[in-house]
Structure formats: structure tokens, C-alpha cells
Amino acid sequence: MASNFEGGHEVWADADAGPVVRPYAMTRGRTQPIGHDFDLISLVTSIGSIVSADVGLGPEHEAIVKLCWRANSVAEISAHLELPVGVVRVMLGDLLNRGLIVVHDPVSATEPTPDDIYDAVIDAIHKL
Amino acid sequence: MPSTSFDPRAGLPAVPRATKILIAGGFGVGKTTLVGAVSEVQPLRTEEVLTEAGVGIDNVDLVQEKSTTTVAMDFGRITINDALVLYLFGTPGQQRFLFVWDELALGALGAVVLADTRRLRDSFPSIDYFEERDIPFVVGVNCFEGAQRYRTEEVRGALALDHEVPVILCDARDRGSVKDVLIALLRHAQTVAKQRREAAGSPTIPA
């Protein structure tokens, strides 16, 4: 069972051992998202709010929706919510299937990068 | 009904898309420092839980720290404009995490291999990886205080790099210096992309 006791001194695992709750418990054991492969830099934007009657969604889903009113990448969602990327992907699949988010995949995951992308990035870095 | 899948031709509202650059190199060479020097946010950390397959290829001889079930990546963000965001990903240095690189490398504009002249050997796996996959990269020689300075040509020779791979002396803590490295990478990557389009015989399509 749980490896730390509330208020007690007996702590078996420090932060280095990873989360006490197995990460995929939050996805009820699911390790693959349904309906979409979410790249680390796919950008997620919320377009709807969670209805409280939706029993399939938990507080982590709500946190994602709240975070993504401004576009955030999958990697950023994982970092801000301190959840492994794999867990975030499953939850994003849930949200996508309910029409609560839109996902914009990266510029060039499979195709050559358009030439003007290089120019835009060089310009922007010059101005930093 | 809201659209939930992205169609590049559908002309959806101005939601940015993203692109990325990888920052590779040995453990402790300054990858996260470099990311932090130019990122608009403090470098963030994301974690991927190792799969069974990943655990299976574990080689204990290569593990410098205690064994762990997660692999962490530090990254930063630069908003280019309303339509484009750039992410800089520090790649996990150890060889046993190479499977994570395959996902990171997919679609990357290119990579910076950060090298320390006192431990050049640590940058070999990164260089091999990008050479084998034809991913454009530059070598940034992080000039640590106390380390002997070498000329870029000496480093190039020691790393057996192709003559077209840029080698730049840099300071991973210094924003101006890191900007120079990134711009050198982007110019190099743009040239490589152009050469490939020409070699493929397809006309350049102005975007």
C-alpha cells in the first residue's frame, strides 16, 4: 500500500523514487491515447469546459483544460502538471474525443521544413 | 460542432504551431544552462516513464547514476511569432535513453551538440546519432573556465567531423553566445535542406 504515512516519520520513498501513486492509475491503466498520436510539441488549446457530470474525467483533465486556454505543448502540460508524458497523452485523448480541445501538430514531423520557417526563426533569435 | 483534428488547409484561427531544436551532449556539459540562456521561461522538466522495451536494453555499465524508471528532459520555449513557437529540448545524455531521441529528433530543425574539450569522448554518441540519421547539427564547444582553449579546427579534427559541420566556441551561460550557436545551426540546416531539395530534383516551392 502507500509507502508514506500522513504525519508519520516513516517515509520509505523520497522524491527520487518517483510518484507514490503509480502514474497510470490516473488513466485507469490505459497507456495509449485513443484517436491521436500526441507529439511532445503538439500544441493543445482548450475550446470547451468539462461538465461536472462527466464521470470519465478527473481533476487532472480539468487542470489540463484550465492550463490550455493558452496554447501549451504536450511537454509543457507534462511539466506544469508534473505528470509523465504518457499519462498526459492518454488524458488528452479523452479530452479530444469529447471535443474539449483542439490539437495542432508540429510544423514538420513528417515533411521537409518550409524554407520560410528557417528565416522566421533566425530573425526571431537575432531579436532576442 | 467543434473541429478537433487539425487540417493545415482549413484556415483555422491563429493558433501557433511548434518546431524544435535539440541540445545534445554528455552529462553535465551545460545543456540545460544553454536552454536557459535563451528560453523565455525557466527551463521546464518533463518525464517519460521507461517502457519495458526501454528497460530491456538497459546496460548497467553505462549508468552513472542510480537506476531509475523515468527519463527526464529539460526544455525551453521561444515564441517566434503569433504562428510559430520554438522549443529547445535538452536530450538525456546517457546512451540507454537513445530510444527517447527518436521521438525528439523527428521533425527537429536540427541539433546542437555541446562539447567539453576535457571530455570530448562524451559527445561521440550524439554526433554518431545525428550523422547516421542525416540530421543537421553544429558542435558548440562550451568554453569552461580552466579548460584549455583549442582552435575550432583542432576540435573538428579530434571529433572527425565533416568539413561542412560548423564548430563554434561558445559560452552556454551567455545569451549572445548561445544566439550565435543557434543561428549558425539554423543557417546550416537551411543550407542542407536546400541541397536536399535540389538533389531530389524537385523545384523549390516558395512558401
Description of the structure:
The complex is a heterodimer of chains A (128) and B (207). Chain A is mostly helical and 128 residues long. In chain A, strands 2-1-3 form a three-stranded antiparallel β-sheet. Chain A is elongated, with a radius of gyration of 18 Å. The relative contact order of chain A is 0.17. The N terminus of chain A is likely disordered. Chain B is of the alpha/beta class and 207 residues long. A seven-stranded mixed β-sheet of chain B has the order 2-3-4-1-5-6-7, sandwiched between helices. In chain B, β6, α5 and β7 form a beta-alpha-beta unit. Chains A and B meet through α2, α3, β3 and α4 of A and β1, β2, β3, β4 and α6 of B.
Task: Kindly list the characteristics that best describe this protein.
heterodimer; A: 128 residues; mainly alpha; three-stranded antiparallel sheet; 34% helix; elongated; B: 207 residues; alpha/beta; disordered N terminus
Distance between the termini of chain A: 50 Å
Structural class, from helix and strand content of chain A?
mainly alpha
Low-confidence stretches of chain B: 1-13, 52-68
**Order of strands side by side in the largest beta sheet of chain B?**
2-3-4-1-5-6-7
Indicate the CATH class of chain B.
Alpha Beta
Number of alpha- plus pi-helical segments of chain B:
6
Low-pLDDT windows of residues of chain A: 1-6
CATH architecture of chain B: 3-Layer(aba) Sandwich
Oligomer: heterodimer
CATH fold description of chain B: Rossmann fold
- How many helices of chain A? 4
Which of globular, elongated, flat, extended, rod-shaped describes the shape of chain B?
globular
SSE class of chain B: alpha/beta
Distance between the termini of chain B: 31 Å
For the biggest sheet of chain B, the summary is: 7 strands, mixed
CATH superfamily of chain B: P-loop containing nucleotide triphosphate hydrolases
Question: How are the secondary structure elements laid out?
Answer:
The complex is a heterodimer of chains A (about 130) and B (about 210).
Chain A: E1 43-46, H1 59-67, E2 72-73, H2 74-81, H3 85-97, E3 101-104, H4 115-127
Antiparallel strand pairs in A: 1-2, 1-3
Chain B: E1 17-25, H1 31-38, E2 44-49, H2 52-56, E3 70-81, E4 84-90, H3 98-105, E5 110-115, H4 124-132, E6 137-142, H5 152-159, E7 167-170, H6 175-199
Parallel strand pairs in B: 1-4, 1-5, 5-6, 6-7
Antiparallel strand pairs in B: 2-3, 3-4
